[in-house]
Amino acid sequence: MFEPDDFGLGPSATLAHVADPAPSRFHVPVWNAWTKGIVASTPRLTAWTSPEIDPADGTATHQFESSRHVRIGCRLFEPHGVAKAGIVALHGYDEPPALVREEERWAPLVARGAAVLAIRVRGYPGSMLDTGDWTSGSWLCRGLDVPHSGSTGDGSDSTATDLQAWSLVLGVADVVNALRALAAHLGHGVPLYLSGESFGAGLGAIATGLLAAHPEIGVEVSRLRLGLPTLGDWRWRLCPTRRSRAGGAQRQITEMLTLHASRSEELIERLRVGDAAIHAQRIRCKVLCKLALRDEV
Q: 0.90 cut: is pTM over it?
């Protein structure tokens, strides 16, 4: 029987492992510029009845406009009466199920008074109308290797601007704008929760950490549910002895670094801008986290 990898760590060592807490040198300028873009717009949930609805997943009931004027498709499930809480539900890295299939999953919480907004970040079915399909190649690598135009030769002059077009930075904007749109829809005082598995859990950790670091955005996450979160501790993940053994998006990153070997250090430094373990240090809300002792990713 095939077993997932433990990457050379037993159970105790796995649970005791602590990520490198030092942020990328690009971290502050990238996320400061990102925050300015976020607060410059006000997303609003609207019913999506247009004939232009994304044909890749036509089961979205609502949409909101996120960064760079991209429409994000979502499906809203509301309880009878006033909502006691609002939940933004995220998805995994591989192609997620149609939005309509989220209804059964979230029905018990909706019955208990929660409003649930299931979204698909840009480039995934349901949110492809303004971007096209970002899943046919590497979603995570899209925009990460944009050549810099800085005069210093290390990317420091232009990286904060370059990475505003990185898929991960834009995907986190979609998550934060979903929370803002749901907050406006539900009204003042309704607590907001965030739920994600794997890729969605990584996005959720980054988004929650950024909202804590930038209160000027105006929303906060009261409870966070993470299932097998990824996108964290990139230096450890990309150690030469582990690179070739991992799957998923990490293998795509490894292939990109091989292709751009002369820029690998700069690209890893850029990648660490979106390191979920670094952003997680800011999280102070209640968290339920499911971990794995063995995992291929």
A: yes
